[in-house]
Amino acid sequence: MGIAALILWLLTAVGGFVLLGTWITKGGGRQADSSHLPPPVIFGHFLLAVSGLVVWIIYLAVDNDALGWIAFALLIPVALLGFVMFLRWLPTYRARATADTPELAEGHFPVAVVAGHGLLAVTTVVLVLLTALGVGS
């Protein structure tokens, strides 16, 4: 189950990189009015997720239960920041149909990538928790 969590975590990261790349290339963070997603939230989410992934890989290599729990603990703020960003993105997504709204960086996010990233992330968190609990081993 640990390897499955790793694979899903990596797939989640791919989606995250697509979203981050889109946000940066479309001007996110350059000016205060270019995005509703604050750069500290975006980059905090990214750095915590990468840190947790590194810890998870080390956990799989050395099989130290404490590292599994640390990786899971790192996923909690990652998930919370992701949920905050999702809630801030929803009005932008809904407003894309109206021409009188300003163009925001996150308005260019592909809906399928947002949905896939979120679903993979939730599944990853569940698998990491189950693995840390020793389910299926």
Structure description:
The chain has helices spanning 2-25, 39-62, 65-95, 111-133. With 137 residues, the chain is mainly α. It has one domain. The longest helix is centred in the middle third of the chain and has 31 residues, at 65-95. 31% of the residues are buried. The mean pLDDT is 93.
| Count of discrete alpha- or pi-helical segments spanning 4 or more residues | 4
Instruction: Give the amount of beta strand, in percent.
Output: under 5%
| Count of domains | 1
Please tell me what the overall shape is: elongated
Which characteristics define this entry?
137 residues; mainly alpha; 4 helices; elongated
Explain the layout of strands and helices.
Blueprint (H helix, E strand, L loop, with lengths): L1 H24 L13 H24 L2 H31 L15 H23 L4
Helix pairs in contact: 1-2, 1-4, 2-3, 3-4
